[in-house]
Amino acid sequence: MSPSYKTPEEVNALHERIRFLEEALEANAYAMDVLASTTAIFGDTDRNRSPELIIQSSLESIRRLLPARDMAVYILDGESSFDLAYQQYPQDDAYDLADAVEDLIQEGTFSWALHQNHPVCLPSRFEGESLLLHVISTRTRIRGMFAARFRQNELQRHEMTLSTLTMVLFNTAYALESADLFQMMERRQKALQRITEHQSRELLHHQSHDSLTNLPNRMLFSDRLSQAIERHKGTDHHIALILLDLDNFKRLNDSLGHRAGDELIRKVAQDLGRLLERGRDRSGRPLRTTLSRLGGDEFGILVEDLQGLEGCVRLVTDVVRTTAVERTVFDRPVVTSASCGIAVFPYDGDNADLLLSNADAAMYEAKQRGRNGFRFYTQDLNSRTFRHFELEKELGTAIEQEQLVVHYQPKVDLHTGDILGAEALIRWQHPKLGLLPPSHFIELAEDMTLIEEIGEWVLRRVCRDLKTLPSPGEDCALRLAVNVSARQLRQPDLAGDFHAILQAARVAPECIELELTETTIMDDPKGAARMFERLREIGMRLAVDDFGTGHASLIQLKKLPADTLKIDRSFVQDLERSESDAKIVKAIVKMAQTLGLNIIAEGVETKRQAEILREFGCNEAQGYFFARPMAFNDFRALLQDRARLPRTG
Amino acid sequence: MTVDEFLAEDGSLCSFSGSYNTIFTRLSDPTANVAAITEAVELDPTIAAKTLKVANSSLYGFPEPIDTLHRAVSIIGLQQMRQIVMSTVVIEHFRGVPVIGVDMESFWRHSLAVGVLSRSIARFRREANIERLYLYGIMHDLGRLLMFLHLASRTEELINIRERERMLLFEAETEFLGFDHADIGAELLESWSMSPAQVEATRYHHAPTEAKAFPVETAIVHVADSIANALRLGSSGERFVPPVEAETFERVGLEMETYEAVIGDARKQLGQMQAILLD
Question: Which of A288, A477, A550, B88 has the greatest CB tally within 10 Å of its CB?
Answer without folding.
Answer: B88
